[in-house]
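Q: Sequence in, structure out?
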Amino acid sequence: MNNERIDKFNKDVHFWGRITIAIALVMSLLLPSYLTFVLGYIPSAENIVAGLVAVAGFVGIVWIVEPISYFPVLGPAGSYMSFLSGNIGNMRLPVISAVQSALELEAGSKKAEVAGIFALVSSVIVNLIVLGVVVGAGQMIVNIIPSSLLGSFNYALPGILGAMLVMYASSIKRNHVIMLIALGGAVAAAIKFSPSFLPSKVATLIVMGDVGVAAIFAIAFSLILAGRAGKPVKTDK
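A: Exactly. Output:
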């Protein structure tokens, strides 16, 4: 009887999960469809491909890695809710881990999955409430903040990225830093000067998808370093 309930629960999860994902997909396409087919703002093929390269090069690997790595913790229901609401790594997973640890549940078990569902629902509700307050009162808060303090917000993103760069760079060996600087300079030069020696369509894709191109080279560089780190060190006997 218990197995029958679990099977019915999983069937319901997949049924409603697929419906909600399909609805979200259709709704996400409503605005671009309206802009394209009603207002007539049709982007060129080069712009579409360049945008795809920029996005796929930056987060394309996540499309494959995250569903595989997160599923054992999230389960079917948690996967549907998490990938629909977003913020999986920095919000949903920590909540699930905290709840499962507090209840001393084994990750991957049915009890842990059910506890994770309640944790996810609570996380999404709190997230929506906070987001609603910030969006609703955000402009009022910005108007209250003095202009001198408001100008300092321009340094928030560079400060975060700089801290991340220092954190990651501190673990890189010196010879790898030289290789990374050389690779970064070569990629920047290729993006900058590609219009002068490449066909116009290819150069347009590279220039407009510069973030994706740089990300692809960075991922390739990381894979090369990971492959070298995994090789056994040879010693002379």
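Residues 52-145 form one domain.
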